[in-house]
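Course assignment 3, question 2. Fill in each field.
Student: A.L.
Task: Predict the tertiary structure for the chain below.
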Amino acid sequence: MTDFRRVTEQISVSPQISVDDVDAAARAGFKTIINNRPDGEDPAQPSGYAIEAAAADAGLAYFHIPVRGGPTPEQVETTGKVLDEASGPVLAFCRSGTRSIVTWALSQAASGARSPQELVSLGRAAGYDLSGVLGG
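Answer field:
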């Protein structure tokens, strides 16, 4: 089941996706997938390798930036670099989408691309509360 939550023209976030959701993402116009979920968090989740293979088959770029708890500065920086270099819309996912949107929002705040208030508003519109991370 797809639950792609558009945050901006460039980024959408989602709870855990399946291999079949990768094809849906490609049909929806995504060019890149960021997997923020560590492998093995849940025995029922598909492996990062399975998602990566499906992404390759669908012609999508794939990045695995596993976040445990809150993102590290390195994970935030890597996410920012991936987004800067992505050729089209990006879909980031984790178990619920929260780690993905938090990591993205922190990369935006760190670069100065968006204000904390704007990020909180964008998060709220996508169904996530970023006020505890960014204030506002």
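Instructor remarks: The longest strand covers residues 11-14. The chain has six helices and five strands.
Grade: pending
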